[in-house]
Design goal:
The chain has helices at residues 14-36, 74-84, 87-102, 118-121, 125-136, 149-153, 157-169, 187-190, 200-203, 210-226, 238-246, 263-273, 282-285; strands at 41-49, 55-66, 70-72, 110-114, 143-147, 172-178, 195-198, 229-232, 251-252. By secondary structure, the protein is α/β, with parallel strands linked by helices. An eight-stranded mixed β-barrel has the order 1-2-4-5-6-7-8-9, surrounded by five helices. Helix 1 crosses helix 2 and helix 3 (87-102) packs parallel to helix 5 (125-136). The longest helix has 23 residues, at 14-36. Residues 1-7 and 283-288 have low confidence and may be disordered. Bound molecules: ligand C2E and magnesium ion (MG) (3 copies). Ligand C2E binds at residues 45, 61-62, 73-75, 78, 87, 91, 94, 114-116, 146, 176-177, 200, 233-236, 253-255, 260.
């Protein structure tokens, strides 16, 4: 692409692109340092069973405590980490920390860790997962790995083989942000997975939106037919919760119950709630 326009002056877009590239380079440099000093760490958001109300597991969501910018959210640095390949080291660190933390949670609570498609490409994912399980002593059944439909777009036999190998270990696979990808339904036959997480864009306001209701019903019925667990993401209101429960959705996750919290805060919450399937104290933990 030409850097100059027809009059030979600099393109209108160039300063912007430069600033963008510069800001990404800055994030990259700082991210490398953060990795070296192991300051990235997962926060945990509980998943609640819609029958009974107990916590079934928690999702690990990476956070970056930044000296000047406070807590940086993954939306800002995961894309940079993916472009630079740093996501592999970040992913491994998050996985190790999540397994270590979860091994000390009470009861049978599982931990869900997000995987980037790139982590399937480097070839050492199996070893990373097995190491994390071994070092922590976490039983494989209590580890869930979240993948997205973009991974399936590649239709790679290596990806399918890795997913089968992970499941053979006893690890479970969840399809995250379901409904937002571009892949066809046919991949659902060739890819092994255990859970569908309905994207929050369909869940938001579902209790009074006919179109969202039609989509969520279709996903629930698809999930039931496939015999997988169905989880709703981003549940913020009692009305959404009640609608989802009435439709037979199995699990929910969202600010109605709790945001992602540091491990010690999460442990306090789990201790207070008790592990014996006690109902989650919705109103007590709701974010203001
Ligand atoms: P995700 O895996 O779909 O995670 C759900 C996101 O929705 C989280 O944002 C969570 O804080 C947010 N959320 C949960 N409940 C609600 C709600 O009721 N309302 C609203 N508005 N939002 C809610 P977060 O933590 O900023 O993470 C964003 C995305 O970054 C994640 O989406 C995931 O794709 C990615 N991510 C996070 N941690 C990791 C990681 O360790 N590795 C990789 N590869 N990706 C990660
Ligand atoms: Mg996720
Ligand atoms: Mg999601
Ligand atoms: Mg998402």
């Amino acid at each position: 692409r030409a850097k100059t326009d027809s009059r030979g002056s600099f393109s209108f877009f160039e300063p912007d692109m430069d600033a963008r590239a510069q800001s990404r380079r800055k994030i990259e440099t700082e991210l490398r340092a953060a990795l070296r000093h192991e300051v990235l760490r997962p926060y945990y958001q509980p998943l609640i069973a819609l029958s009974g109300g107990g916590v079934t597991g928690c999702e690990a969501l990476v956070r970056w405590p930044h000296p000047e910018r406070g807590m940086v959210s993954p939306g800002e640095f995961i894309p940079v980490a993916e472009d630079t390949g740093l996501i592999n080291a970040i992913g491994a660190q998050v996985l190790r920390a999540a397994c270590r933390d979860a091994a000390r949670w009470p009861g049978d609570i599982s931990v869900a860790v997000n995987l980037s498609p790139l982590q399937f490409r480097v070839g050492n994912l199996m070893a990373t997962v097995m190491d994390a399980l071994k070092q922590s002593g976490l039983p494989p059944r209590r580890l869930e790995l979240e993948i997205t439909e973009t991974l399936l777009l590649e239709k790679s036999s290596q990806v399918i083989a890795t997913l089968h190998a992970l499941r053979a270990l006893g690890v479970r696979i969840s399809m995250d942000d379901f409904g937002t990808g571009y892949s066809s339904l046919s991949y659902l036959r060739s890819f092994p997975f255990d859970k569908i997480k309905i994207d929050q864009s369909f869940v938001r306001g579902v209790s009074d939106n006919r179109e969202a209701q039609a989509i969520v019903r279709a996903i629930i019925s698809l999930g039931m037919g496939l015999g997988v667990t169905i989880t709703a993401e981003g549940v913020e209101t009692e009305a959404e919760l009640n609608w989802l429960r009435a439709e037979g959705c199995h699990e929910a996750q969202g600010f109605l119950f709790s945001p992602a919290r540091p491990n010690d805060e999460l442990r306090d919450l789990l201790d207070r709630q008790g592990t014996a399937g006690g109902a989650f104290p919705v109103s007590a933990s709701r974010v203001a």
